[in-house]
Amino acid sequence: MVPVEEAQAIILQSVAPVGEEAVPLAEALGRVLRQPIRADIDLPPFDRAMMDGYAVRAEDTARAPVRLRVVGEVLAGMTFPGSIAPGEAVKIMTGAAVPPGADAVERVEKTEREGEWVILREPVQVGQHITRRGSQAREGEIVLEPGIRIGPAEIAVLASFGSATVRVARRLTLGVLSTGSELVEVGARPSPVQIRDSNSPTLRACLTMAGVGAHPLGIVADDLSGIESSIRSALEHFDGLLITGGVSMGEADLVKVALRQIGARLFFERVRLHPGKPFCFALFEGKPIFALPGNPVSVVVTFLLFVLPALRRMLGYREEHLPLFEATMTEDARHSPERRSYLPAFVWFAEGQAFVRRVPWEGSSDLVGFARANALLIVPEGVVSVKAGERARVLLLPWEGLP
Fold this sequence. Notes:
The protein is of the alpha/beta class. It has seven helices and 28 strands. About 20% of the residues lie in helices and about 30% in strands.
């Protein structure tokens, strides 16, 4: 068995970033940026009013209350001719350019209008309610770095600086193959000795959330020729392959045999991990093959620890691994000390601190118990139990928000 970090390092050294393509901005959501984005203008491009109100000279309000003569009005998208002289004010709307000569804006709620005059009852400070030119970005400044996934906020930045097309990582597509004579499709009624295939839908969902295309390849029985044929076909059409089941030590566990027969290079076959020990990684003609255990919780754990970092490396993310953080245990947690454990857990925050407790579950086949978790509690090798009150490392499930 190889340690978790060694397995992760082997995988990351074995995969390389894929190519890139230019896409219209409207198609960039969810893609991984492959170019630095620079501001082509200052943002904002002018001193901009943050409030509806009156643009004034701050020094004119030092002896407030004061009466200032209103000499005009400026709306968003308009410019004010001339400049403000001492004792004058200009009515201004949110987003409009501050007139020359003005250095502050007083919001309308704190003023009183009397014909051509406006009364300000409090002094204002220089820069009040004004967003200064270039305060958000200067022309030529990098505003988005390569290696980030483009979300709605990034779309806004790209649009603001004229990026009508964007260079992104090309789309990845992986095949998803389930093995096991005991499996039936989700819509079928299983016999007393069969179970529905939950692993394929789970992995397809994981891939979709990772921004990767997932192609379901169905179920193949525990038959060597059938498994071998399915693997060969998948690797002809996709960038890689996820296989679940058939990787343990039983007579019907034929996936590793099939991989050897097609000439794939197996890097390791077991990881010092619980759950998920019988995880296998291989390459065939440069394409990664991830052979995951058949138990559903093991599938998710090994996907997060090994498959997702590899996909992020291939897509060009700046960071491959999901972040870890520490939380305080609220109850004791025991486990087998021979392997590092990633146990289903629930994390919450109170008074600025993170707390964690184990979620009751019946082992790596207990998908119902796992559905109640929003994190994985990490218990190192050699540790029999983590006590209440101790700090422990936690991996938040990337599709879960904290309550």
